[in-house]
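USER:
Before I trust my own judgement here, I would like a peer's view. Write it directly below this note and I will take it from there.

ASSISTANT:
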Amino acid sequence: MLAQLSSTLGSLQLPLRISLAGGGSFDLGPDPRVTLEIQDPTLLQELTSPTLDKLGEAFIQQRLNIRGAIMDVIAVADRLSKSLLGDAPENAPQRSAHDKQTDADAIAYHYDLSNDFYALWLDPEMVYSCGYFHAPTDSLAKAQIQKLDHLCRKLRLKPGERLLDVGCGWGGLARHAAREYGVSVYGITLSKAQLQLGRERVQAQGLHGQVQLELQDYRDLKGQGQFDKVVSVGMFEHVGHANLNRYFAILHDQVKPGGLVMNHGITAKHTDGRQVGRGAGQFIGRYVFPHGELPHLAMAVSSMSDQGLEVVDVESLRLHYARTLEHWSANLEAQLERASQYVDDRALRIWRLYLAGCAYGFARNWMNIHQILAVKPLKNGQHHLPWTRADLYR
């Protein structure tokens, strides 16, 4: 079978070696940088139609091991898959129901993995979202502080205002907004692990009088016009296409007339929201973000507009997220032994592929990420935003 596979793949000229655990190997090109060590011989037949999810599943199931730098592994796997299968996108997916329990379970699966595990590769503030790089040489920690500032400046936060943070994570943005801009923050999350550490950091930094973090579903927010500003970072990917209108309607209801709403989230490349092709989207949906759905920018803007929010500014941070993910992946790769103390082998294999694969995908425009700023207009249709963006960059 190894000889047959060598005959099938030998013309691809990839820097890849395929070896059998029991002996025997062949190279697909000179100077291979990546080795696939086949532990299960039945996998050899599957390598003739190597979708990205098949390759990923084989790795996490220990049917194969990899040797080489993880970013090289991802690049070679993509080239192997594309050479044999082409580059057709997935069909438009079926939509999930996204009830409260389903969403809570999905959040717990991803975010309650281990605070110590996340701390190994995130920045000191544990900001688990796209950084903002003034230059590609900026450190991860610097880029994340710049991102928090960028959000706060876009929201034009002022001392004494009330800010709602939907999907507050470990509270990095809430603490920054309270400390640096003098606002009071009400943050909500569905992750018990995030909430515990977030509250500990609020207390440790003496911000308990300004920052309140709660375990709460966005659908359980009550009242009208309670907040001057609303921000949601890395949250609406979990909402689902079917719930987008309800989600933005709730954000609209929570902010006062004249107030601003910032939605920062990953968006699909295709207007119908279909997944990334050759199985990459299926792998993420199955092993990383259960029930996650990426709306296209057009769908997000349409939904916000239909709920009475006037979109006033849109910024793509796609290359910023590619750089952020490169940092995260490199940090994890440097800490694999310690990481194995916090998560099992299966989870660690998933996360190695996920971080490196997403860095590769964002760099190649497989998906995007947008900050969408909207205003809830006053009754007369006016708002009080500056006439230009100049104040953001002073």
